[in-house]
Amino acid sequence: MIPQEKRPQREITAGFIVYRKTPEGPKFLILYHRGDYWNFPKGHIESEEKSLTAALRETKEETGITSRDLRILDGFKAYERFYFKRAGQSVFKIVIFYLAETHTTEVKISDEHQGYGWFLFRDAQRMLGKYRDSRNVLKSAYDFLHGKSSRSRPAFVKTSTFNKSSADRSAGRPPHPPRFRSNDELHKAGN
Question: pLDDT digit string (tens) for 15-29?
Answer without folding.
Answer: 999 999 999 999 999
